[in-house]
Amino acid sequence: MRLDLLDPVEPTEKEIREAQESARQLAPHLPAGRGLHVQVLEDGEPRGILSIPASALRLLADILTQMAEGNALTLIPIHAVLTTQQAADFLDVSRPFLVGLLEKGEIPYRKIGTHRRVLFRDVLDYKRRIDTARRETLDKLAAQAQELGMGY
Hints:
The chain is α+β, with helices and mostly antiparallel strands. It has helices at residues 13-26, 54-68, 84-91, 95-103, 120-147; strands at residues 36-42, 45-52, 81-83, 110-112, 115-119.
């Protein structure tokens, strides 16, 4: 499987307009929490019916919303195996810094020959842990600033 972490494709102007319209049409169906049956048309001719599960609809809505804003996207399966460069790019850190995290046991990895490989799931878990720790620290600092009357 090829993961294009470095080469997401930006939507064209036409795709942005189509995504905006599609997201608008899809929005009323999301709160129901049920899937949808969608008729597929090709050149105006019916070609079949798709059954789309609720979880896929939510993901599709998120994708359409991002595309409508002109953002490029990359989907990464949770079970994907990443190179150290791909994992570093996802975390927005240097590869040597990531290797240091691996060596310290912050993120599990395995070696294939001489190459380290990490599961995307483990990289995502690490990101969630550090994001939570950052939020907690910022909350403590804000509370301390309030107590000290620093005007924040």
